[in-house]
Amino acid sequence: MRLFSFLSSMVLCSLLLVAGPSEAAPGEVRVGIAVRPSLELSASSGKLSVLHQGRAVLSEREVSLSLAGGRVSVRGRVLGDSVKVMPPRGGLIVYGGRSYRGHFEVLAGEKGLVLVNVVSLEDYVKGVLKMEVNPSWPMEVLKAQAVVARTYAVANLGRHRKDGFDLCASVHCQEYRGASAEDERLNRAVEATWGEVLTYGGALAKVFYHSDSGGYTSSAKSIWGEDVPYLRGVKEEFYHRVRSPHSSWRLEISAAEVGEALSGAGYDVGLPHSVEVTKRDEWGFRAVRVAVSGSRGRVEMPASRFRQILGYSVLKSTAFEVRGVGSPSGSGEPPSGVSPPSSRPVRGRVNVRELMEAGLSYDEIVEKLYEAYGILQGDLAPPEEPKGERAQRKTPQRGRSFVFEGRGWGHGVGMSQWGARALAEMGKSYRDILGFYFPGTVVGKR
Asked: What angle is formed at CA 187 by the lines to CA 182 and CA 188, rounded to 5 degrees?
């Protein structure tokens, strides 16, 4: 559900064509890790065992596998469509510098060997959480995130069945990094909620979350057109307690860049001269539809699509107003929004560990990395206007750039992580948090 690996995950998913994958046992998850012409696996201690058709064919500390004639080959010995690689008792398997629990299956795919980590559901959740929430946050937030991550996993088991596994390891499903991503506090949160999922009317709930709502979450119906009774908008009356760096933000981006991005996505409006929010959500807060007019025409689209085109880390949310313009036409001043990669200056070193220790979430750490390379502008906008003054206005582009002023980060549906943190700091339990953001749902064992 995040930033860096989405395109690579889609490529991986499109390349796979697997012969005869096995089914996961109850309580297990099959996670697609990689597709490669060859694989190098090692044991954290002891020796790995390679099994073909239930029989051990090799026992070594390090194992090299390759694709030969459409089959899995180990040390030049062609075996078949798939093999299992088992760790020593109590040990882990290491691949690509990361350690994994459970065992691996290696499948012969059309474009290479498919590496699948077969792991228990609870260990899977432990390998996901650190990618979604900061371990230093209140325990009740971590528990809520564990329930959401587990619910998502169970509800989406088999999403990649045709590819030979249940879920991929990237943001297309949930980013998963195995035992290497485990954290003592996060593991405690997983164990404290062992087996718990969110249900509605006896069925697994559809769960979504985002970094910061900006004060109002939106319904799934208003954002995506799907009416889900427990994914309705809620107002965070406590938002003044939310200490998010995304409470307000400002982005200045050139008209040329907006036009370029739209053209690259198949919308050729020429040089844009206006952006209009044509529809907002039930609160009048978040843009639902946006129209862009340019020298070659006009296009209207969902605001979520407009945000995707500009970049999720560039336009942080769809809770924005287009206030005015930046540099006047012909001034020659460069825009202060997104610049071409070749011209992005490095603005200093970023220590990820220090950012985590400071309590920043995963998305915020990503933003700091983007800022360090000149991708985002970090100015904060002034406080939001009263609701009655939120006009669905059209702002002419008289100069070189559009100025977006907004609140929050993310799509705004479901649980706000910064809001959940504020609720936890107010003494609310993880069940209270989940009940607030997913009204009508029940926490129960799967």
From this structure: 155
